[in-house]
Amino acid sequence: MKLIFNFAVLVSLLVLAACSSSRTLPETANEVARKVQSKDFSIRANYANPMRGSQLYLTSEYDLRIKNDSAFAFLPYYGVAYMAPFNPAEGGIKFAEPMEDYSLVPNKKNNGWFVRFKVNAREYNYVFSITIFANGNSSFTVTSYQRDPITFSGEMKM
Question: pTM to 2 decimals?
């Protein structure tokens, strides 16, 4: 009987430890707000949703980083390109460029932000529209005159 009791206590402790979070939502929200307002954040893309096709789970480490007045992207691209890249080995959305027309607006429910900016990379011009929620989840759309739009979803790296 004592063995069953000890086993039940052990299982209960393991379940409680697995379900608990090291950070509460207010702590996460404050950290997300600080990062977004200081223009120093990174979003890991977990899913890609091309305009023509179904959603794709991304198994590699793809991300979009904002640091001061520059943006750094290492993202895949799935869709129709109206202009082929000069170097076919450089596919995807990859750049490290300064941002233009950066805007940061809190959303109406005060549980996140809308970020919008433009980047003139070497071969393509991009417009990024990002939605970031207080819990760090985010979604962003990349549009360009030279390619179909693509949307990514993921979470902010803490």
Answer: 0.79
